[in-house]
Amino acid sequence: MIEIACKFRYGGAVETLFGIMTGIGLSAACGFRIFVPLLVMNLAVLSGYLHVTPGFEWIGSYYATIAFGTATVLEVLAYYVPWLDNLLDTIASPVSIIAGAVATASVIVDLPHHLKWMLAVIAGGGIAGFVQGATGAIRAKSSLLTGGLGNPVIATLELAGAIITAVFAIVFPILCILLIVIFGVIAVFKAGRFFLRRRIRRQAP
């Protein structure tokens, strides 16, 4: 009986860990695009590749497919409109945090309700907000340097990032976490160089 209980606990811990990694990966995808990862989740649930926790079954409904699909098309097209993309970044920042928290909470299993939501808000919402802030900063810089002409390229890369990250989060969660870490290190490094250059220019006579 003790051996069976240990195996059950070990299996549950592994399932919880993979759920957390999957949730963080989906949250990162929400930082690139809000509705793309939600649509990917919906299709994955409908096809049986992803199982959500009780209370989030609506994510796998056909009504959600229509809603997420429509919202995805509108969101993708809007980011190709010059200067509207920068406005969307301002609106998308808080919404992406909410979407990231919901995505994370929907796939975490075997955790108390309050602990699951605490982890979802801190880890899921936090990573979604970080990615959204990083991509928004890149787009703002592109708008200043190219007058918005380079923004469609960034929008395309963000769309690809949202799709790839969401798919990897469900199929290869460990690899997805590795890619997120690499992205975070690069983003922090770039931000550090930017602020260092600004400080040097201000101190220069």
Offer a concise description of the structure.
The chain has 205 residues and is an all-alpha fold.
Describe this structure in words.
This protein is an all-alpha fold. The protein has one domain. Helices cover 82% and strands 0% of the residues. It is built from seven helices and no strands.
Main sheet makeup: none
Shape: globular
Domain count: 1
Q: Helix coverage percent of residues?
A: over 70%
Helix-strand sequence: HHHHHHH
Rg, alpha carbons:
19 Å
Which regions have little confidence, pLDDT < 50, spanning 5+ residues? 1-11
Number of discrete helical segments: 7
* Structure classification: mainly alpha
Report the count of strand segments: 0
Average of the residue pLDDT scores: 84
Task: Quote the beta fraction.
Answer: under 5%
Quote the distance from N terminus to C terminus: 76 Å
Characteristic key phrases:
single chain, 205 residues, mainly alpha, 82% helix, disordered N terminus
List the helices and strands and how they pair.
Layout: H1 2-32, H2 35-47, H3 62-78, H4 84-105, H5 113-146, H6 151-171, H7 173-203
Helix pairs in contact: 1-2, 1-4, 1-5, 1-6, 1-7, 2-3, 2-6, 4-5, 5-6, 6-7
